[in-house]
Amino acid sequence: MIKIIPRHITKLVAEDLKDIDAVFINGPRQAGKSTFVQAFAEHYGKVTYITFDDITVRAAEISSPGASFDWITEGLVILDEIQLVPNSFLALKLKIDEARRRKEKVKFLLTGSADLMLYPNLSEALVGRMYVRTMYPFSAAEISGTDGNFLNKMFNSVPEVTDRFSKFNFSSIVSKATFPKLSLDVKNTAQWCQSYISTLLERDVKNLSDIDKIEIMPQLLSILAGRTGGLLNEADLANAVKVSQPTLKRYRTLLDGVFLTFQLQPWFKNLEKRFVKSPRIYFNDTRLLCHLLGFPPGEVKASRPDIYGFVLENFTVTELKKQLALMDDGKLYHLRTSDLKEIDFIIEKRNGDILAIEVKAAHTVVADDFRHIRFLQNALPEKFRKGLVLYTGEKIIGFGKNLFAVPMTALWEM
To answer: Which of 1, 104, 129, 231 gives the lowest tally of CB atoms within 10 Å of its CB?
Structure first.
């Protein structure tokens, strides 16, 4: 039995349901959504749980959209894996509107294992009726029992120069900050990873789109793994897997849609610089990435020193995404100019405040590691809040006004 680890999203969902009729929790399959909603329901009162992973329930709902829930007049209704019955989205809208008119005290908590962008009918049907939350695999902070508030603290306070942080252990944290089953309960991790990927490709991707060359998907995943953190070049990828560029784009979008991969968009402003406007490609789970590279986390650094820095970068960006999912304010980007000024990650709030983050796979930091961050600091002095170099040492060290070397472990220990 899997140990129940509290999820940071719990408080947000509880607050959302006080404010709106429905909350949709999407995220990767096996990220813990079903376990979460069932645990959440234990503290809610009257609950009706319906899962469309059940073939019979799904068949009945497809036959008569809305029939599984339109009779319910009170309490919390959980509709698990609702992406499997997309024709029910309109029925849900009608049910919510009817419940409003009749003043029924009913709320809906939905889950889905595909990105909402692939279901425009759902978002359109439920505009003004639904909030969307994304649940990722365990964060390092959830595993450690901390609040995962690193980014808020970096934006709003000056970090204390200290050496109280733990030694960074890449293998340990990547093996734990992953899918709940893989983190807590599986001994044959390589077999689990392979089975997970196969299931996504053979089931979820096929459910999303009728593609005629499913056999190239493993090859595409393998190539993307080797290019983690690199700029997306769809023409080059299409040539590598021997498909047309439109086909490649469609297949890659499906990998994003089932939360295997994601694109990190470029940041650019009118700063008298030419900015590279290509996204970078990353994987939503670094443990799966290690599997695709052919090495367990503990062997990546020794076996693939050429790519270890990019794998560490992948781990960092996923941890940042998990924290941003709790903030409701802040978007994540990368920066690169035509004259090769690069910053791994830019986080920009709605008011324009900026946090710049570099990742360094080393135990030491020197002033030159901040050279591109200083470019941004000088270009946007009023909006620049802090520049950080995350490294594998154990001390926070100041490198000038609002510039700090910060231990990687601070991401979950602050």
So the answer is: 1
Amino acid at 191: Q
pLDDT mean across residues, the chain: 91
- What are the start-end ranges of the H helices in 227-340? 234-241, 245-257, 286-293, 297-303, 305-324
Residues 115, 158 within the same domain: no
Region for 402 from its dihedrals, namely left if φ exceeds 0, alpha if ψ lies in -120 to 50, beta otherwise: left
What tokens does 99 get? 């419940």
Give the start-end residues of each E strand in 27-123. Answer: 47-51, 74-80, 105-112
148 within some domain: yes
β-pairing, 74-80 vs 105-112, is parallel
Cα angle 309-312-313, degrees, rounded to a multiple of 5: 85
b/e string for 47-70 if b means 16 or more Cβ within 10 A? bbebbbeeeebbeebeeebbebbb
- Domain-located, residue 2: no
Spatial distance between the Cα atoms of 120 and 139, rounded to a whole number of angstroms: 28
Nearest to 181 by CA among 171, 172, 173, 193: 193
Whether residue 162 sits in one domain with residue 148: yes
Of 8 and 119, more confident? 8
Read off the pTM.
Answer: 0.93
For CA atoms 352, 8, 114, 19, give the dihedral sign: negative
| Cβ–Cβ < 8 Å for 177, 201 | no
- Identify whether residues 108 and 166 lie together within a single domain: no
SS (H, E, C) 219-241: HHHHHHHHCCCCECCHHHHHHHH
Residues 126 and 144 both lie in one domain = no
Q: Please tell me the total count of domains within the chain.
A: 2
User: Does residue 3 lie in a domain region?
Assistant: no
The HSE-up count of residue 344 (CA atoms within 13 Å, CB side) is 26
CATH number, domain with residue 21: 3.40.50.300
**Digit-coded pLDDT (tens) for 328-365:** 889 999 999 888 889 999 999 999 999 999 999 999 99
Torsion, CA 93, CA 98, CA 101, CA 104, rounded to 10: -100
d(CA 61, CA 87) in angstroms, rounded, equals 9
Residue ending a domain, choose from 81, 104, 134: 134
Q: Report the C-alpha gap between 142 and 78 in whole angstroms.
A: 24
Structural domain containing residue 77: 9-134
As a whole number of angstroms, the longest Cα–Cα distance in the chain is: 65
